[in-house]
Design brief:
Elements: H1 2-17, E1 35-42, E2 48-51, E3 60-67, E4 108-111, E5 117-120, E6 127-131, E7 139-140, H2 153-157, E8 164-165, E9 173-177, E10 179-182, H3 185-203, H4 208-228
Antiparallel strand pairs: 1-2, 1-3, 4-5, 4-10, 6-9, 7-8
Helix pairs in contact: 3-4
């Protein structure tokens, strides 16, 4: 009995002297896909059918096993990367771009003889026909009454008072134009805006044919405001 006790002590001492070894954790076991059993049944008439249960009596039966289908894992949404904005096309090296600016157009205010005022793009007002006597030129009587003045141009140009019709003229006339003055730039822009407002007001009550004319005029006014007045 004592020998057995001594032997047990020696075994324990030897086990204590052996260094402990680290046991690596077991690798995870991949899950085994589930299987499904399919029964292929053929009846007496030769009709073939498939079922998950055994075939009916009198039918020829074949058993097949297959892996049960599983849904694919959901696909991760791929983030949309915004494309960088396109860079403006650079001018070729050595090539200079020239921008031409149209100088502001002048505007003139003209006055008729009866005091009416209107605007014009130049200083040449509307022409009108007037008799010469309204400009201070004397009107000479017909040649038959000149008598001795024939052959004497100086007498025709400077006739005797008795040979002049005052104040009614029976002679010719000439074309003259209304007087015009140039407007300052600020006044020009203000008048252009007033004209555009008048066009828009008239547009609502105008017929379609007149509206076409008003549209064209408003485009011209807006283009002039952009170029001469720095915008609308």
């Amino acid at each position: 009995m004592r020998a057995v006790f001594v032997l047990a002590i020696c075994v324990l001492a030897f086990a204590g002297s052996v260094p402990a070894q680290t046991v690596a954790p077991a690798a995870p076991v991949a899950p085994v896909a589930a299987t499904v059993t399919v029964y292929r049944c053929t009846d007496a008439g030769g009709m073939v059918s498939y079922s998950s249960t055994p075939c009916a009596a009198g039918s020829k039966q074949q058993i097949r096993s297959s892996v049960r289908p599983v849904d694919a894992p959901p696909r991760l949404a791929v983030p949309q990367v915004a494309s960088p904005p396109a860079k403006p096309e650079a001018a070729p090296q050595g090539v200079q771009r020239t921008v031409y600016l149209v100088p502001p157009r002048p505007m003139f205010e003209c006055t008729t003889p009866d005091g009416k005022r209107y605007t014009s793009d130049d200083d040449r007002g509307n022409p009108r026909w007037v008799p010469l006597w309204t400009l201070g030129y004397p009107t000479v009587r017909p040649t038959s009454s000149l008598g001795s003045n024939i052959g004497h141009p100086e007498r025709v140009m400077h006739p005797h008072p008795r040979d002049v019709n005052w104040p009614v003229a029976t002679g010719g006339g000439t074309w003259i134009r209304d007087a015009c003055v140039q407007l300052p730039p600020a006044d020009v822009c203000a008048r252009l805006r007033d004209r555009r407002d008048a066009i828009r007001t008239r547009f609502f009550n105008a017929q379609e044919k007149e509206r076409d004319t008003l549209r064209i005029e408003e485009r011209s006014v807006n283009a002039r405001l952009d170029n001469d007045c720095g915008g609308h």
